[in-house]
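User: quick one
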Amino acid sequence: MPRIKDYAPIVGSSTIEDLHLLAERLRGKTIQNINSTAVGGGVAEILSRMLPLLHDLGVDVSWDVIKGNEKFFNLTKKIHNALHGVAEIFKPGDLDYLVEVNRQNAKDVLRGADITFVHDPQPIALIEEKRSRGGQWIWRCHIDFTNPQPDVWDFLRPFIESYQAAVFSAPAFSRPLAIRQILISPSIDPLSDKNGEIPDDLVDSICARFGIDRKRPIVAQISRFDYLKDPIGVIRAYKMVKPHVDCQLVLAGGGATDDPEGAQVLAEVKHEAAGDPDIFVLFLPPGSDIEINALQRAADVVLQKSLKEGFGLTVAEALWKAKPVIASAVGGIPLQIAHKYSGILSHSIEGTAYYIKQLLNAPEYARGLGKNGREHIKNNFLITRHIREYLLLFLSLDAQEDIVRL
Amino acid sequence: MAKPFHFLTRLNLVELLGVRAKNARELLAGLEEVPGSCVYYHTHRFIQQHHYLSPEPPNDFAYWVTNALGQDALGERLASVDTVRFRSIASLKSAFLDILQTALAAKNGRSCDCQEGEEFHFMSCRTYILPTSYEAHNLREFREIVQKISIDSIYYHVFEARLRLEKGDNDFSDWFEAMGESKLARALSLVDPYTCTLEGLREMIVEKVSVYAQD
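Assistant: Done. Structure below.
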């Protein structure tokens, strides 16, 4: 695991000095993160990278995961979809099951930390314990909250407003709430297996292992198999391009333990891709970070054609590798891409196909987009910025003024 | 002998106010009700997030009116609000309110809506000021430190000190004045920092100090 000082050559030593200064001011405080999955998905990934670095800075931070059965995760997936604007029907009492499972977990999971940092809706009802256990509580929302289904919003709102502050990933997710709302974008780790530099011959060998031909253009979407990532739409865009450019499509991703829909989506994707040997549908097991890194680096164009996004960290990953990216203008993606400057924002399958052709046929232009994209990610979306904002968030719970002298 | 100059730095945490606007009328209504820290944020965000890219810092209001509403003339008027001329956020806010009120009055309060998803979101920032380990006793030391200190520190002493803390001038000029370097103080006071990138500003400070620093 990298140490915090290892980031200095990338972000500068003054950035690291700032982190030490902030961490010092949190000495003596305990902070507990709680979410619903230890592996798979963006939240688990960020926490698993961030915690060792926070420890290295001397911050007393821990991470626990609530337990749930299939019924619970089916319910939380439905809630997730409904918050993303997908119509879901909840029968009377359905949502109460979330509260019941949270109550069952409370005794085992809560540690009486000074700050309890709860991630996403799955463990949101743990806030019921605030009165008896005390401490400061923050709710971190990692998902797209632009158009939540009204009944789900009505259910969640009283829980959210019981926290001291809520944290969102993009300005559009903010809603009128009785509590403070903080904007903190997620981040990528430039020293992780997924994003670190790797030799080109390793990229060659990984492509060869999957049967991908590096001599012909490669278009890739590296993302979880999830309806909201629109993998079917990606295949349709590729099919519009294929008669004009002899390219290959790589659809690669894994699944999260809290996502029961993954297998069904994968089956539909395979059905849509059947019969075309230039479409590679790769279900990657956990721990495939080097493979993901290599596939992103092998790609000539990277897509993220999501219908909804919490943030879309795969965009930052590809931009960090200086790849031209075509992505939907949803969730946090417009924060990462300035259209035609650091990537392309598309709004349809046809538009995506048009831009794939354009970028494959104009590699100089595509390279320029990737170069600007990498610079933007370096300045705004690396893990060191994320750690700094979390430390400021923890410190902010005790401050009322706009300008605080530390 | 003037006191040594202690370099501070600042870090921001962005807050979402949960207020959004889809047309100029709602922009005006929102602007009337938000705190000064929100006006500060939307007139300085560009400098902070894109300081390595461009020396042009359009304020967020102008950018949104032009690009999301397509009202170029109003956008230009909002962009022409010259932030460097204002000594307080309250007076800066009044300038934006005046322009929006005048523009809406000319159209009897009518204003077109932006596309869904392109609404203006009001934000503000909470600023944390931290000490650094750097301290200058003379211009030569000052120049050396400015060359290596974080861009956030330069930002703090130039932008935050002057407008947000309402000190009237940047911290560097105040110290030069106390050091008896009035010409240098004046030379830096006259610079419009909003027309430079932050790295460009660093270079300019180093250049000006080099003229007066005795090697």
